[in-house]
Queue: 2 jobs
Job 1
Amino acid sequence: MDKKKTILIIDDDVHIRRILEIKIKHSGYNALTAKNGKQGLEIIQNQQPDAVISDLNMPRLDGKELCLLTNPMKKDRPFLTIIITARINPFEQKWIDEMQDTMFMEKPFSPSKIIDSLAKYFENVTP
Amino acid sequence: MISYAQFKKETQRDYRQIKESGQSLIGVLSLPSTANLLSGPSDYLFRELSQNALSNKIAYCIIHDAKTKSVLSFSPGNLDQQVPDTIKKQSLLKKGFVMQEFFTPQGLGLIEFAKPVFKENKMAAVVRLGLKLPTNAFFTYEHLVLPSQIIFFILLALVFGYYWTILSFKHLENIKLPDSETPRIKQGKGDVKDIIENLEVYLASVKEKTSMAESSRQKLESRLKISQFENKQFFNIFNAFDFGILLIDSRDLVFFANTYLLDILGQSQEDLINFSYYDVIEHEGLNAFIMQLIAAERHLGPKDINMSFEETDPGQFYQASSSNIMDAEGALFIRLIRVVNVSREKETEKLQQDFVNHIAHELRTPLTNIKAYNEMMMDGEINNAEMQKEFFNTINDETNRLAKLISSILELAETEIGQITVTKDMVKTDWLMEGCIDAVEAVAKEKNITIERQVPDNFPKIMGDKEMLKSALINILGNAVKYSPESARITFAIKEVDDMVIFEINDTGFGMDEKDLPHIFEKFYRSENEDVVEQNGSGLGLAITAEIIKTHDGFIEVESELDKGSRFTIKIPMGDLIIG
């Protein structure tokens, strides 16, 4: 059996971190959490999660800055990034499109849809 | 000329037709059957020749036997008698087709076609056909009628023109021009004295005219100076504008650039004036914009364009736009290009965009929590009773958070656009203090925080909206509780100084970073300090407080140090108290 995938949740809102953590664990994945982009970046570098779910609007390194810093890492080790945002405009859509293996999900999102997106991604990347 | 050209063309055409007709006719006449005519009736041939459409061109037709003797002859004008012997011999002796042009002694142009007739491979006869050449006389009635008509009409026009001019000048004789007085020439005997006198009269007249010319010149010069002065005045006005002006004439030469534009271009008047804009405007964006304007003049082109002048004015945003100024005839006279600094508008636009993004973020985050927690419960994923309770609490808290946020946004919007109803009344400050403490006491107790009252001997009264003032003070006192650690101490003081009531709220909480202080009254601003981020907050509380204080003509000040605490001071004028 495949090794359990690890998902990192980065959000400054405690309730969002909590609900996503529960949902991810219920779906059979490992879950890691971070309160801001800076903490999230350290976890990505040290623990190499298989996917990252991050809020866009955060203190201490927001979602966009995090994506720009982590995108080069995906060349050697691809992983999915789901950006959670309250409002997507053409400008944001543009930079998200330029990132590798990156998608967005608009608030208010359904936890099940996040799980569906993760499953679909892992299905495509796993031989 | 037209007639002559037509005549030449007709002559060439007739000549060609005569030749073709002659060749065709001689061909028919020299058929073997022609030889039979020598021994049979020839009336048929002559009748045919006479009735031939070309008979008026046929000069003669002679058929000779094998011994060159003329046996049949058709020559209506006896023109065959005028054929020179050399021509005749050439036609009879040459055993093949012959075509010869010649003139009779009377000067008539003829062309002779001759061809032998063979019967049973023997030459039985020779047919000679003479046709009249087209006349080359130009001065015939047909050719002269058109030029004659033209000449007639020209002459008619000249006669009418002459009489019309004479009649017109008759009217002009009655008009006297003041400056065209003829010098009065003395009609003397014509001796030297008379000549000198006449010369003096002439000289006086010349002097008078010179003086008039000088006066005209001075008038023109003064008009030019006025015009130059007016231009200068216009340029001075343009130079006073706080945006760039560039005038380009219809030949694409720079006519004027105001000092504002020269400053941001980093160029001088001498660099630009009277040069083609294309060659001298160094700023690529502006140069390209003008070029696009000119190229798109007849089509829909760019109306304005954003640009920056990084070398001379870094970090600023400019917008160039243009309009064409037409002359009285509607032709392009000047292109006017305006270059305006739009940094402030851009900043406002960005702030508005940020504001909308913040509102969306703040509203959708609790909404997301309500939806997500509810969905998990509905899906039956949460079976544990304790966790279910936690979920219900979260849904409840997030609903309250959302409701509070919506109220704050509405309150702020109403205050900002001046729609809120301010009911100013006499407000007792002791009532304000107790009301505020009551509102935050429960949370303070949870954290074991003490709120100490510092009160004057007599509580002052102020004119204001008691609910709004209470709301403003609760925001500050609430923040002091929220951002203070457990067991912290907060003081709430009220003082009266110089007709002002001073509210002072002092805490020993987390304090604020120096870089956060200038922004704390901005909408949605939240510090990145971890202790602040941990707490729920919309970033609107202090913005609303500041608006309320402003409505009461008061001031709010803040002093803060990280990890030591903050002091908020609110000063409200007491106002004209109504004693009821």
Note: Residues 37-104 of chain A form a domain with the Rossmann fold fold (CATH 3.40.50.2300).
Job 2
Amino acid sequence: MTAHKRYGMSIDIDKCNGCGACMMACAVENNIPPVPESANDRKGITWIRVYKTDNHRAYPDRRTAFVPVLCQQCGHDTPCVHVCPQQAVDVDPETGIVGQMPERCLGCRYCMVACPYHARYFNWWDPVWPAGMEKTLNPNVAPRMRGVVEKCNFCHGRWHAAQQKAAAAGIREIDAADYIPACVEACPTGALRFGDLNDPSTEVARDAALPESFRLLEKIGTQPKIYYRSRRDWVREIASAPRPDGKDQHRG
Amino acid sequence: MTTTRRNLFKFVGGGAMGALLTPAPWRLITDTALWSENWPGIPRPARGEITTRFTHCTLCPAGCAVRARCVAGQPVSLTGVNPHPISRGALCPWGIAGHQLPYHPARVRQGPMREAIAAIERAIRKRSAGERVAVLDLRPGRTVSWTYRRAMAALDGGLYVTPPQSAYAIDLAAAKTVVSFGAPLFDGWGTPGNVFAARTNFRLIQVEPVESRSAALADIWLPIRPGTEAVIALALAGEIAVAEAARVTGVDEKTLGAAKEAMAGGPVLALAADPASPLMNWNAKLGALGHTVVARRESPVPDTWKKAAPATQMAAATDGTIRVLLIDESLPGGYIPWSEIAPKLAPDAVVVAFTSSSEGYARHAQCALPTAVYPETAEDVGPAIDTVAAVFRISTPLIAAVVPVVNPGQFVSRIAGLPPSDALRERADVIHKAGSGMLIGYADGKSTPVKAVTADDFWKTLNQGGCWMDSTGKQTLPGKLEFTASAEPAQDELPLTVVATEPRRGGLESTLLSKLERESNLRLSADRVALSPVDARAGGIENGARCVFETARGRLSVAAMIDAAVPVGVVEVAGGPRVADLCGANGRARVVRA
């Protein structure tokens, strides 16, 4: 029997230049359509979104960092799973990936409210591509209909493809090189890494153990599987979203 | 037991109530949504045999190697090619979605080809002495560029014009400290994979007024007042006092001192946003010439091609003398503001643009003729600025053109009366005959000496996924250090200095770029500008308000974004042909409420 995986990602914020290659690769891989002209940053669909953040100081002391935020794949008390009345969200025990089943989703958006990372997106419009462009869609991922919530699933289509390849070769374990999410593959700076956090020999597991490594909103206890790292103090501080008045509230 | 009407109702009612306590109705609700996945409005991705093909991206001069995943022959995703020694498996956001460009809704899909040929031939026939026929090549260095040059040499009074070009290539891997004067090193300057591979070896001192993506990742950022780059160069060169430079540029002395200290660590390279900038001449004094700044090398061409018109600048043409202007805008490249071109045209000039986009010169030309777009394009990619070796790589078409297109090279050849030829094959044969360098195949990642392959195999590999690369012999460039501080005084009518921070090369851009612009505000879109809170408050402008961006040459309707990262007195724009036409060389503007 194969050991259960715990897929996760490490993101080096000090390397990210905010180019957006990860966002484009994600949209291409997962058949995420461009939104209508009237849409804004609240109605767009970006399974991975690079946020531009800063140290809150005035020019010229202001410094910027780019923080890619995707579904954090919470490993404990996964909020979206708890609130979904449709069982449209689940955590795969084999991989640790938080999955979303759009065909079950009723579009109530409880999960969006529950998600502390704003990593879920509602489909406000029918998926429409300019005439002819639908030929360029990825056949491994079905476009989602209007009125459902969607989010990053670590390119689950690629995981299935890797499994099929392994099965065809008669082996149980997939080759790590066969399963890399599109954003990680596309990152030109090498800021994104992906792998099994349960395997201490993987780069991502080693990154997670680094002293400058941290997770977003660690204090709320959801145990995300996305590990960020930065040598800049102010970047690490914003990850815990401290309240401006200093009265930080902790869960429990 | 007797069946009565009452018992029947009890049974049905009880059954219905009981059913509510089972999972069945809830499951039914869940599954009612299943049908919607396949309703007619949802596109169904095509199925078919999955294959892998290789080509080169033509969206910028970097020419990154591309691996295309194709379904039934149609590319559905593009990634980089790891064995490629320069692009190293990386692609930029534009390149990743390049396979969608042929279907772009704003693509130029038809043009008056016959009328254009007739008008050009009439103009050539009737032109007076001294009037010229010119080709403006926005992406020089390609094989088709040689065709243009040969055609202009064959025509009486032919002129081959390019935007300002750098004659040098940069060996980033050999630098220990890079002083960048606004060059977007990490965002569109060179080949992304090559730049990031070299990044761990050099310290970056970024000199520019706003914190661009390169400044954000720089080791030291010098936030200068716009237009004072030369003063920083003089201070770092030790030709003026640091205190004086700090006073003029607004950068504090401590930061300037740290930058000067960082330069002591090893070979220093100076880069400017404009490759023709005199700031590049500082490299002579820094000792970079021949080491990190070397002559740019082109792959060999047939001897018969060398009787070609020289490349000239638009400024060198006499005013009012260009009777026919053919503009090759088929690939995104440099842009010369229309205000610099218009005076050179004869009163009854014919202007034809070969383009896929209606945003660039198509706005000014009498005829805009549609061309192939990447990945329909079949041509080579010229040398990139960060490629020291001579290279020859072909952008092999992944699909046939989806609209009727004009081949600009064949069009110009016909006008000049050149015989039809397969210029790419001719050049490949000359390279193969020379016998030097290596052939790199992308499918297996192997490098093979050119001498070990036949001419046909060489050509086949170039077309099916491979490139030719020569040895990296470096050639020195002459240069000198000449600086003058050229900070422009503020003007009351146009109080803001325009700073373009986004790498826009014109041409079509994927509709998915909305993810980076409107859907996330990660990048500034072409219809937005960013202002400091102080300037916005002074103009009574609120965040997101519709405004007019006004320069001495015209106006543009934009949305204003307020950003505390923008310094006072600066308006940040995305760049592109429209802004270039509006701003020209004098980048000053004002933003007022619409």
Note: Chain A touches chain B through 72 residues (CB under 8 Å).
